[in-house]
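Teaching assistant here, posting this on the class forum so everyone can see the example we discussed in section. The complex has three components, and the goal was to see what a joint structure prediction looks like when all of them are supplied at once.
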Amino acid sequence: MKVPILKQGNILIATIQSALTDQDLNNLQNELSHQVSHYRSQGVVIDITELDVMDSFSTRTLRNIANILKLRGANTVIVGMQPDVAYAMVELGLTLPDIKTARDLEEGLILLQS
Amino acid sequence: MEENGKPTTTDPSLMNRMGLDQDEIARRKAWLEFTLEDETRLLSLNEMAQGYATEVIEALYDHFLAFDDTKKFFENASVLNRVKNLQKEYFLRLTKGNYDNKYVEERIKIGVVHASIGLDVKWYLGAYNFYLRAVGERIFKAFKNHPEQALEAYFSLTKLVYLDIGLAIDTYIFQREVTISKQQEAIRELSTPVLQLREELLILPIIGAIDSQRARQLTEQLLHAIRDKRAKVVVVDITGVPTVDSRVANHLVQTVDATRLMGAVLIITGLSAEVAQTLVTIGVDLSKIMTVGDLQGGIEAADKILGIHLEKNSDQATSSN
Amino acid sequence: MESYQVSIAIKTDTDIVSARQQARELAKNLKFSSSELAGIAAAISELARNIVSYAKDGTIVANLIEEKGKQGLMIIAKDTGPGIPDISLAMQNGYSTSNSLGLGLPGVQRLMDNFEISSEVGKGTVVTIKKWVVS
């Protein structure tokens, strides 16, 4: 399923749905990379409010996305992580150390603008 | 343990858990002056007992069924049948001699059955009185030409019945204690509430020891509260935690990480310098944890964090003080 | 409870999503906390992904189980892939999530109560995990 990406000024907002396959994530990586270049976006918010599972693959991919976008001049913020997903992640030993996080879309946008 | 009325007394260690060992039983028998002579006397009553066992049990349960307070437990035909059969066995056992650990276990078992269906102890003990009268009558009839023998037999029976009553009471108390400790556990869980101090600021003062299960439960509670209350900062105070070892510290680190993933900040207060030093020495990485001396200091630090955030948005309503 | 078991063939990455969704649904029949369910889903995702990445195909079977009065969920991830030459290496902590070739197995072990793995080079791998309901 394609992840919808909205443009809001110089920020892109990607909203992830719950049934996310590996392919969807890979596609997202390509799409964001392409759009950030195209629109010269300065920030990307990835909204994972609907995501109910995070494993090593999705973690790696999100980190890759953040790194790639940084190379293209955009900062990434992950928002809306569910409490149970956060807990399962730390138990798996995954912490997303180099990516900014925020409570929700609103906070994420504020963070990107600061 | 007991589950929804299903007794789980095939566990032999139940006797031990109740503090009943061979020595304890011996002490009780001595107290009741229950001797080998009593045992022999009771054995001699067995043949007679076989003859009227069914009659007595039927009368006992007719008695139970005649009163509103006790009728309701035996309305289910299969429950009634089961307890009648158990009770008959019990009754005959009174005169079979050999009142050893196995005997005690059987007594406890039947106590548990009645406790677990919710039969109040006063009705259960009242049933013993019924026994003594029903059997007493029959003993005196059978020994009518030797009343002193009848009295001796009757006394032996009362001694044994009192031993059994003691066990029945123990069983009820034990079940009650199990329920209480379960309730205490539940209270402990509920009494570590996550408190909302102000908008976007939660505090969680932890009191008491933290084992792995409690740690997990606290973290879950905390993370859910962060989402539900839309918190940005949480202050966790561990002054009331008696032992902060590496396990507890690692749980704290996990909680800090999970909080950050949700876009919030966790501040730990009440971690003394000595404890921190010890943890670092044994290799716990505390660098990720933001610690501040005491709860008040933690709240001040939290306000600062929230305040910094506020400066960026002058149109947002002020939330501190 | 209508069913005690689900069996999912794992071949493509959409099967990974299927596996964790179906197993999660099955697990909901027991009194797991929501965070335990998230953990179960993550563990299954890891195991299913290993099958897709390394073995090309296999199966995930999820069962509701009961042992000594405890209730729980058992997952068996089986494949006939190349096998893991050095299991102890794969189970080492650093050799997992940050490494792109990682199998995520230590993490799965941490999330679950019981973890068993057997593997033979050229034959395949079986991972059995169990999670018990805390009563």
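For the discussion questions: The interface with chain B takes residues 78-84, 86-87, 89-91, 95-96, 101-104, 107-108, 110, 113-114 of chain A (CB under 8 Å). Residues 5-113 of chain A form a domain with the Transcription Regulator spoIIAA fold (CATH 3.30.750.24). Think about how each of these relates to the inputs above.
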